Amino acid sequence: MHRMNIALLHYSCPPVVGGVEEILRQQALLFSRNFNNVKIFAGTGSQFAKNIPVEINPLLGSQEKTVEMSVRMYLQGQKELFYNLKEKIKNYLLKSLEPFDLLIAHNVLTMRYNLPLTYAIHEIAEKNDTEVASWNHDCLFFYKDSDRKFSHEIYKILRQFNKKLTYVAVSESRKKDFEKLYGKDDCVTTIPNGIDPKSFYKLDDSSVKIIDERNLLKADFIMVQPSRLHPRKNIELSIKVTSELTKKGLDAILIVTGAFDPHEEGTRRYYNNLKQMINDYNIENNVIILAEYRLKSGEVINSNRLNIRDLYLISDILFLPSFHEGFGIPLLEAGMIKLPVVCSDIPPFRTIGEDSVTYFKLDETPGNIADKIIEFLKTSSTGNFFRKVIKKYSWDNIYEKNLQPFLSHLYVKRNKKTLDNY
C-alpha cells in the first residue's frame, strides 16, 4: 500500500453546503484515515476537520468577479484578462502542488463556473509531475436546454479529452455519458460515490472500533440479540442458528450485547459455557459477545446503551429466542428504528409484535429457524437494499475495492514519470 500526498480541488468546500462539497469532505476524511496526507484547495469554505488543512484562494471559486469578467470579455473578443488569470492560477497551483503526488479535481474540468481554472489545470497536466485526476460528476453539455452561448470555442475545453489526465466518473451511466462526450471508449474509470455509516449514524467511538476490528461492514448478515447473559435468554439457540446460517453459505454474524447479570453469580459460568460452545461449533469469527469485549489492542469495551443502539443500526434483524419474558422492550426499540424482528413465539412477544414480526417455536430445530431467516431475507427488499448499500457503497469498502488500487496505480505512474525525467 502506497501512502500518498493528495490534493483535492473544487470551487468550494465545507462548510459550504452542496453535493460535491460533501463528497470532497468524505473523500478527504477517508484518504486521511487510510494514512495519506491530504490538503484541500478551494475558492470558498474553511477548515472543517482538525487533520485536514484547507487553503482558500478566491481565484479557484465559481463566483469571483474578475473570473466572471474575464469570460465575458473573452466572449466579446478581448482575451487578455482571461489568459492573464489563467497564468496566475496556473502558477499558483504549480507552486502549491509541488509536494503532492496527485491532484483530484472535482467537476472543475467539466463545468463552466471557472474557465481560467479549467484551462490552467489542463496545462498543469501537460507539464507537471503531479498526476491529475478529473473527478467527473456532471457536465453542462449533458442538457439539451443549455444556453446557445456554450457553443462558443471557449467552452470546448469542457468536452475536450486530454490524454495526460486520468478521468473518473461517479457511476456507470456517467461513464458512458463522458465517453460519448469525449468520443473515446474505455477512457473513464468508474468509482462510485459512497456513504460513511459511522458518521451517518453518528456511531460511538467504541462501536466504531468493534465494527472496524471485526469487519462488520463486509458481513453478509448481522443479527443482534440485546440480552443479558442468562440461561432464560436462550443464547445457546442463537449460537446454533448462527452455525446453521454459516453452513448454508452466509457470512453471518451474531452480536450479543448483554452484560453479566449483576444479581446472579452464575452468569459468569454461563458466559464461559457459551464461549466453549462457540469454540466447539468453530464459529469464533461469527459470534461477538460484548460482555467484557477486549480489542486486539487490549482495550476493554464495556457494553452500554449507546453501543446497543449503534449495533441495532448496522444489523439486519433483531433475534430474540427467549424461553420466557415479562415484557420485551427490545421489540419496541427495533420498531422505533424499523429493524425487522425474528423471535420466539411466547405471549409477551406476540402481544407486542402481533403480525408484524417473524416467529418460531421453541421446539423448532436450529436448521428450520435458519431457513426461516433466509426466507425472510429473500422477501425483504428493504433489508436486502440496506445490506447492499452497506457492503457496496460504504466508503471504507469502496476504498479497499476501488480507490486504493486506483491511487496506487497513479502513484506508480507518477514515480515512473519522475524517473523518466532524470
TrEMBL record:
<dbReference type="InterPro" id="IPR028098">
    <property type="entry name" value="Glyco_trans_4-like_N"/>
</dbReference>
<feature type="domain" description="Glycosyl transferase family 1">
    <location>
        <begin position="215"/>
        <end position="381"/>
    </location>
</feature>
<dbReference type="Pfam" id="PF13439">
    <property type="entry name" value="Glyco_transf_4"/>
</dbReference>
<dbReference type="GO" id="GO:0016757">
    <property type="term" value="F:glycosyltransferase activity"/>
</dbReference>
<feature type="domain" description="Glycosyltransferase subfamily 4-like N-terminal">
    <location>
        <begin position="17"/>
        <end position="198"/>
    </location>
</feature>
<keyword id="KW-0808">Transferase</keyword>
<dbReference type="InterPro" id="IPR001296">
    <property type="entry name" value="Glyco_trans_1"/>
</dbReference>
<protein>
    <submittedName>
        <fullName>Glycosyl transferase group 1</fullName>
    </submittedName>
</protein>
<dbReference type="Pfam" id="PF00534">
    <property type="entry name" value="Glycos_transf_1"/>
</dbReference>
